[in-house]
Every structure is written in C-alpha cells, then in structure tokens.
Amino acid sequence: MMMFSGRPQKSLQSLINKMKEYCMAVKPISIRVMEKQSDDIFETVVVMSKRARQINQNRFMEEAIKDAEEFELGVLDEIPAEPKENYEEETKSATQAMEEFLDGDLKWKTVPEEEI
C-alpha cells in the first residue's frame, strides 16, 4: 500500500469494489437492436417512455388500492415496521419497458397526421 502524508492510499481495486456497491449496474444496448423493432429511433423512445409511465401508474394504483384496503380494515396502526431485508426490490419501470420492447411484447400503432 502506498503512503501519502502519513495516511494509507486506497488501492484502485478497493475503490472499484466500493463503486460497484453504490452504482447501479449498467447494461448497454445496441441501437441497431432497437432499430429491428422500429425504423424510427424517436418512435422507439416514445413507445418505451409511454410504457414506462404506464408501469409507474399501475404500480401507484396497486399501492393506493392496498393502502385503501388497509384503511378500511382499520389496521393502519397495527402494521409493524419491516426490516430492510424484507423489502422486495422492483425493476425500474424504464428497464422493464425496454425489456418488453426488445422482446417484442409491446404493440403500438401510429396515428396518421390527418386524424390528430
């Protein structure tokens, strides 16, 4: 380990490991793969963003329904705090929308300019 001003300098590997803990995993996707689904990359981005927004709205509604049911049952004060380990980690809505798009699960149609 190198010394600088009397303090040990962290090795590059330990810094990399620390960054891996704090940073999310990045999964690069080729634009060419997206172009196979749609010729227009801007249309692709719009389709995926609208699907991501729809996923967020669905998650919000499910949570609101669950909260309303708990309120109706009067168990709001009885819910114990769950430990951090018990929380379920959901995939990000943008990631889920992109995976659905790349798998060919999303269907959309374009509306002609005259109909708008």
- The Cα radius of gyration reads 23 Å
**Largest sheet entry:** 2 strands, antiparallel
How many strands appear in the DSSP assignment?
Answer: 2
How many angstroms does the end-to-end distance come to? 67 Å
Mean pLDDT: 78
Q: What global shape is seen?
A: flat
Q: How much strand?
A: under 5%
Spans of at least 5 consecutive residues with low confidence:
none
Question: Outline of this structure?
Answer:
By secondary structure, this protein is mainly alpha-helical. The chain has helices at residues 12-22, 31-37, 41-73, 93-103, and strands at residues 3-4, 7-8.
Task: Tell me about this structure.
- The chain is mainly alpha-helical and 116 residues long.
- It has a domain at 29-78 and 92-106.
- The protein has helices at residues 12-22, 31-37, 41-73, 93-103, and strands at 3-4, 7-8.
- The longest helix has 33 residues, at 41-73.
- The chain is flat and about 55 Å long.
Task: Summarize the helices and strands and which ones pair or pack.
Layout: E1 3-4, E2 7-8, H1 12-22, H2 31-37, H3 41-73, H4 93-103
Antiparallel strand pairs: 1-2
Main features:
mainly alpha, two-stranded antiparallel sheet, 4 helices
